[in-house]
Amino acid sequence: MINVKITGTGSYVPEKILTNFDLEKFLDTSDEWITSRTGIRTRHVAAEHEVTSDLAAEASRRALSMAGVQAEEIDMIIVGTITGDYPWPATACVVQHKLGIQNCAAFDVSAACSGFVYALDIAVSRIRSGAGSKALVIGAEVLTRAVDWEDRNTCVLFGDGAGAVVLEACNEDKGILSTHLHADGSYAELLYQPGFGSRNPASEEGLKARLPYLKMQGNEVFKIAVRSLTEVAFEALEANGMTAKDVNLFIPHQANQRILDATAKRIGLSDEQVYVNVDRFGNTSGASIPIALDEANRLGRIQPGDIVLLDAFGGGLTWGAALIRW
Ligand code: ACO
Predict the structure, then answer these.
(1) pTM reported for the whole predicted model
(2) 37 CA distance to ligand 1 middle (Å)
(3) What mean pLDDT do residues 286-293 have?
């Protein structure tokens, strides 16, 4: 069987930082509430001129540079995003153009915060099938334009950013060991953007009802998130005959410190095994795992041969895991 390994990682977050104290100035909230309930202290916000494809393209350039791969060698670009440049065409197509790549497959995956793991699964399968040998897999979001800045229940949680990896076919005994994807659409309305799609097409009334903004039932999502993240992490470990002790680094979707703590505890992971950056970036949805992966990689927290467990959960509801031998 062809193996598929990550040969480069990259990430990009916009320069502007919004602190909890900045939020206190225009919202009925406090740094104390946000840090104690979520662990989030700051998040990055895209500049007016920046769009999702800009963040994605910059993260990709950094990943390509680390991999030593030229843009034109890429056979496919898959972007996990729910805040693309447009409802359509795919942000992956815009990224392709920005990177100067011609005529490779380019499409987006809509799996919210699980988008990167879903995109990774598809890219690995396509490479294994022989459909190409080099892929760019990206998670990129500008969520600060999809949240309702008058809704303190949600807007304090999210931030902007992008992360990317270069995947390459290899014959070595390393790479993506397995991926595991799940979804339960009966929970679609626990975490969603009600407008403006075919159910609620664009209208002035819809705008007044704030339909184009993210809505979430936080308490419900919290419980299902911990359960699903735990179950799929065990599924990935068991599929490879491993236990929590074998994991060198656990990189969960960075939703909320309390979700990360509860999940890690249930899986049986120590603090040292868990990578956390939600305090600095907030929840960047599909971008959170590849940003964390790139940070950890560049900090030397991942060494050749290490076992890395990616664990995602998000709107859909969707969840998934990927186990990697680095
Ligand atoms: N500042 C101050 N008070 C607030 C804020 C805020 N920003 N937001 C809510 N409150 C208030 C509420 O109005 C409520 O007040 P009330 O009791 O007077 O009605 C009180 O705080 C408690 O609200 P809860 O919703 O019960 O607070 P909870 O402890 O559940 O924390 C939170 C809310 C942080 C959203 C939590 O439910 C959570 O983390 N859920 C998971 C959310 C998440 O991470 N989702 C993303 C995962 S999937 C994805 O990434 C897309």
Answers:
(1) 0.97
(2) 7
(3) 98
